[in-house]
Amino acid sequence: DGYAYQSAQGTIDTVAKLTALGANVDRVATQLSACNIDYQAGSPQRGALITLDLSLTDDASESISLLHQVHVDNVP
Length: 76
Description:
Helices cover 8% and strands 38% of the residues. By secondary structure, the chain is mainly beta. The chain folds into 2 domains: 1-28, no CATH class; 31-76. A hairpin with a 5-residue loop joins strand 2 and strand 3 (63-72). It is flat, with a radius of gyration of 17 Å.
């Protein structure tokens, strides 16, 4: 499923381009009020860190924030 590997993934940056290549469009979350993705590059002495911070808010204005961090090993 999905689309084939592309040598330059950065050029495929819209939903229209992805669906033209055969990708599926599905809803992942509803009532998403904020989404932040941060990448802190590593160095020769330490790995990188990816942080995903999501906030969801319902119709009653109740909200929850979800934070997930992933350590990316720095392997030469």
